[in-house]
Design a protein that fits this description.
Blueprint lengths: L4 E6 L5 H9 L3 E6 L4 E3 L4 E3 L2 H8 L4 E2 L7 H8 L5 E5 L7 H5 L5 E5 L7 E2 L2 H8 L3 E8 L9 E8 L6 H24 L15 E2 L15 H11 L6 E4 L2 E11 L14 E3 L4 E8 L6 E2 H7 L15
Helix pairs in contact: 1-6, 5-7
């Protein structure tokens, strides 16, 4: 196995297993790039990203430029004389001078089966769409948005009750060894990147708060997928009596009625098709609670409408 001189570029906890695998394999990590520390917690203290914290715990130098478009940032990166750069959920676009600087180029671990779900939120979009499977791809980067040729891929079945946290963790787990094998095999001349298919391209647009607004006229299955895809994260909400209620967990059940209307006193709401049993909710400035505790504080008797005004 060829030992490589690598730069690593990543930010969230999804990227940490890949960095750990590269370190464990004995590669020289000459520098780690990550997003700058952000305010977090009640005190809004500047907190390093999971990748930065992990890298520093292993004595690795960390850089967090706000842009890679400046000549200074590009010169600093080129001066690393890296054999390759490994990119996992970094969060900045890489301009061509950055892509071209390493000897073998830049390689990205993307959390979808390309060309499906190119873009910022592939894990969530796969769940929201009801995909039966997804996976990870190790790809050679080019100037396009996740358009580069693929070195290796691995598929994961999406279970009927799988949450975004469960899928995220599984993809991170299988992605680390996949990326490691792909980089090894490429450097040793054992594999060649394969162009992506031109058919089946979809885009996983960045998520916004609007994505989490529950529309009770949709089917119970669609709303359930939305809840499982966006919690934790953007979150899913509906308005009731002027309050923004977070719906953290639910499950489809049999039932029918006017969409948004409670079908019983135990938390079952009619949807456009079918019904949804509310399982875990959160009122503003309150802790998350299971449905029984929620209903003790805010009863939702049969016939109550959850249709509120548009959320601001």
């Amino acid at each position: 196995m060829t030992k490589l001189r690598l730069a690593f570029m990543g930010t969230p906890d999804f990227a940490v297993p890949s960095l750990a695998a590269l370190i464990a394999a004995g590669h020289e990590i000459v520098c780690v790039y990550s997003q700058p520390p952000r305010p977090a917690g009640r005190g809004q203290k500047l907190t390093p990203s999971p990748v930065q914290a992990f890298a520093e715990s292993h004595g690795l130098p960390v850089r967090h430029p706000v842009s890679l478009k400046t000549s200074e940032a590009q010169a600093d990166f080129a001066a690393l004389n890296a054999d390759a750069s490994i990119v996992v959920a970094y969060g900045l676009l890489l301009p061509k001078p950055i892509l071209d600087a390493p000897k073998h180029g830049c390689f990205n671990l993307h959390a979808s089966l390309l060309p499906r779900w190119r873009g910022a939120a592939p894990i969530q979009r796969a769940l929201m769409a009801g995909d039966a499977e997804t996976g990870v791809c190790a790809m050679q980067m080019d100037i396009g948005l996740d358009t580069g040729p693929v070195l290796a891929r691995e598929t994961v079945a999406i279970g009927p009750r799988m949450t975004v946290s469960e899928l995220h963790d599984e993809l991170a787990r299988i992605g680390a060894p996949l990326m490691l094998r792909a980089v090894h095999d490429f450097a040793d001349g054992k594999i060649a990147p394969q162009p992506q298919a031109t058919e089946g391209v979809t885009y996983a647009a960045k998520l916004s708060r609007d994505d989490g607004r529950i529309d009770w006229t949709k089917s119970a299955v669609e709303i359930d997928r939305l809840v499982r895809a966006l919690n934790p994260g953007v979150g899913t909400v509906f308005e009731l009596n002027g309050e923004r209620i977070k719906l953290l967990a639910a499950e489809p059940v049999s039932g029918s009625g006017t969409p948004g209307t409670m079908l019983d006193d135990a938390g079952t709401v009619a949807c456009g098709t079918g019904a949804l049993r509310l399982l875990k909710l959160q009122r503003p400035s309150k802790s998350p609670v299971v449905i029984a505790d929620f209903l003790r504080g805010l009863p939702l008797p049969q016939g109550t409408s959850l249709l509120g005004t548009r959320l601001g």
